[in-house]
Write a structure and sequence with these properties.
- It is globular and about 40 Å long.
- Helix content is 34%, strand content 6%.
- The protein is mainly α.
- The strands form two sheets. The chain has a two-stranded parallel sheet with strand order 1-2. A two-stranded parallel ribbon has the order 3-4.
- The protein is built from four helices and four strands.
- It starts with 8 loop residues before the first strand and ends with a helix.
Length: 155
């Protein structure tokens, strides 16, 4: 982070802060952990355990981000998750953090119509999920993001 920057928080697709900022407190530059994709197996609670360890170590985690582009293929950076896998992983890895008072952002789908359809299916399937905010990916001009926000808000 550069002096005079308006940036107050960041994420990096992982549970741990980037090495360049790891020494900064949350009040200096807030780190928001992200669970990129589904755990390797049902015994793997890596995201939950590591974020909990960050908190026990003194880092004030207040928000986490859901899966990265679960509707997108691995070849394009997506986590390529089925809705059922995402619901299962959410309840195991995210819901316990929310019980600790941490706010959780919905899975961050692609900006394609298929991404919005995936998110709608996730919201319908995850009856016991609490979504505190909806992060969006958008690559384009200002009027396009206005349209995307309006579409997501309406949905």
């Amino acid at each position: 982070m550069q002096s005079g920057s308006d940036l107050t928080w960041y994420y990096n697709y992982m549970w741990e802060p980037s090495p360049a900022f790891a020494g900064l407190s949350q009040s200096q530059f807030e780190y928001i952990p992200m669970i990129w994709g589904a755990p390797a197996n049902d015994q793997d609670y890596m995201f939950l355990n590591n974020v909990t360890d960050l908190i026990k170590g003194g880092r004030n985690i207040t928000h986490v981000l859901g899966f990265n582009e679960p509707d997108g293929p691995w070849s394009q950076g997506g986590s390529n998750m089925s809705v059922s896998s995402a619901v299962h992983s959410w309840m195991r890895e995210i819901a316990p953090l929310q019980q600790m008072g941490i706010k959780a952002g919905a899975p961050v789908v692609t900006q394609r119509a298929s991404g919005l359809a995936w998110l709608a299916e996730f919201m319908a399937a995850c009856q016991n999920c609490t979504i505190d905010f909806i992060p969006l990916h958008y690559y384009g001009n200002f009027s396009g993001i206005q349209d995307l926000i309006s579409t997501v808000h309406t949905a």
